[in-house]
Design goal:
alpha/beta, globular, Amidase signature (AS) enzymes, 18 helices, 476 residues
Length: 476
């Protein structure tokens, strides 16, 4: 195979070839590095180039394989790591200039699990300051661009991850999600992801000097952005391997027991008074039809109140942020991010003191409502955003900009607050006056059943096709 053919391989295809001995880890990694060198200068998605150590690791994997070692589940797959997670010997800067020398003493669990599986890290990807925007730009590394064009934000906070994997830089891209930071970049770039549920993927940063707030602990999860649903089924079993540094990790297998009969899917187009764009509605209809064709029973029915849960949850998170994080943002953040946080506090008036404790407790009420609802409907098909994805720096344009970016995104952060797994998959390519852009939908799964969400994403993908194929035609 030529280098141009190798970087196009999905993670699943790469593993099939490396395990069969048809492709060396070195050739796989070399091809991905060549692709990174070709397209990353225009994207600025990967901001720490690890080519040298990646090639050395790939050669060592090949030597071990030749000596009789059994290849790992991700043998020879090129991956990227977001710069807010620890990777030994590298800075976990989180997009903040003051943290540019915060060198990680050891790998975070997700990095360690990737290494154990035989994956090779080729670079570290960009994030906004403090990983707390749905767009990706910072004073330390600058702006990341969307490979579909500069008319669309790359999303955030895992914007570098979404842009890199869709542009062909690596087969898997690590990201994380406290209010949508896996799903915003997936929607912006046309990637596939699953936001794992609470406790599914072990998390810990060895460089941290204090524990995170309770809501940050319960809402934030680690995950992957991919170009196909099959790559999530391949890689997520490795990601959920236990790590004793996360005492609240839940050691369940990736695949749970099958259900009797066809799975019922609740389907809603409710956008709570926000205008539902025709392209988003068309994407929802395509996803519904794909699920029906795949044998799911889809019923248009309203799930428990997502708007109330989402707004309550994000106002509670803002209360914790105001109490524990605002001082750091004011001290180390740029004027841009300080201004954005001020508007966040206006859009989501923080619950504080006793009210904050009450709203943290109310999380169980919303989770119970959803648990009961999903006894009948294990999956729920929803919009992600009511409108096509926004332009770069939209959240810097005052209250109106923040409202378009985050205010209407209740289907995103509601499920961080409740702790349910959510798949996000493109089902349509919209041809808008500003240019083409993918439209993603969401699949909310029953607790502990990320596999159900990914199965549904695969069914939708079978109808819509892989968005990367359309993107690479435009990029070539």
């Amino acid at each position: 195979m030529t280098s141009n053919e190798i970087w196009r391989l999905s993670a699943t295809e790469t593993v099939a070839r490396t395990h069969a001995g048809e492709l060396s880890a070195e050739d796989s990694i070399s091809a991905s590095i060549s692709r990174m060198n070709a397209v990353n200068p225009a994207l600025n998605a990967v901001v720490v180039d690890l080519s040298t150590e990646a090639l050395e690791r790939a050669r060592n994997l090949d030597k071990a394989r030749a000596a009789g070692a059994t290849p790992g589940a991700l043998h020879g797959v090129p991956v990227t790591i977001k710069i807010n997670v620890d990777q030994a010997g590298h800075a976990s800067s989180n997009g903040v200039t003051a943290l540019k020398d915060l060198i990680a003493p050891a790998d975070a669990p997700i990095v360690e699990n990737l290494h154990k599986a035989g994956a090779v890290v080729i670079g570290r990807t960009n994030t906004p300051e403090f990983s707390f925007r749905a767009d990706t730009d910072n004073p330390l590394f600058g702006r990341t661009h969307n490979p579909w064009g500069e008319h669309i934000s790359p999303g955030g906070s895992s914007g570098g991850a979404g842009a890199s994997v869709m542009a062909g830089i690596g087969g898997l891209a690590h990201g994380n999600d406290i209010g949508g930071s896996l799903r915003f970049p997936a929607a912006a770039n046309g990637a596939v992801t699953v936001k794992p549920g609470l406790g599914r993927v072990p998390a810990y940063n060895p460089s941290q000097s204090a524990e995170r707030g309770m809501l940050a602990q319960s809402m934030s999860v680690q995950g992957l952005l991919t170009r196909s649903a099959a790559d999530l089924h391949l890689s997520m079993p490795t990601m959920i391997a236990a790590d004793p540094r996360d005492p609240f990790h839940v050691p369940l297998p990736w695949r749970g027991a099958p259900l009797d009969g066809p799975i019922k899917v609740a389907f809603t187009k409710n956008t709570f008074g926000y205008e539902l764009h025709p392209e988003v509605e068309a994407a929802l209809d395509t996803a519904r039809d794909a699920l029906v064709d795949a044998g799911y029973v889809v019923e248009e029915v309203e799930p428990p109140n997502v708007f109330d849960a989402g707004r309550t949850g994000y106002r509670a998170l803002m209360g914790e942020v105001y109490t524990l994080m605002k001082q750091d943002v004011d001290a180390a953040g740029s004027q841009t991010v300080r201004d954005i946080f001020e508007v966040y506090f206006q859009e989501f008036p923080p619950f504080l003191e006793t009210d904050l404790l009450k709203m943290m407790a109310k999380r169980t009420h919303y989770a119970r409502e959803w648990s009961l609802f999903q006894e009948k409907y294990p999956l729920v098909l929803t919009p992600f955003l009511p409108q096509p994805f926004f332009k770069p720096d939209r959240d810097t344009e005052g209250a109106e900009g923040v409202h378009e970016v985050l205010g209407c995104a209740v289907y995103s952060y509601a499920f961080n607050y409740i702790g349910l797994p959510v798949g996000c998959v493109p089902s349509r390519l919209a041809d808008l006056p500003t240019g083409p852009q993918p439209i993603n939908v969401q699949i909310v799964a029953r607790r502990w059943r990320e596999d159900f969400a990914v199965d549904a994403c695969a069914a939708i993908e079978s109808r819509a096709g892989r968005m990367c194929d359309l993107l690479w035609e435009r990029m070539s």
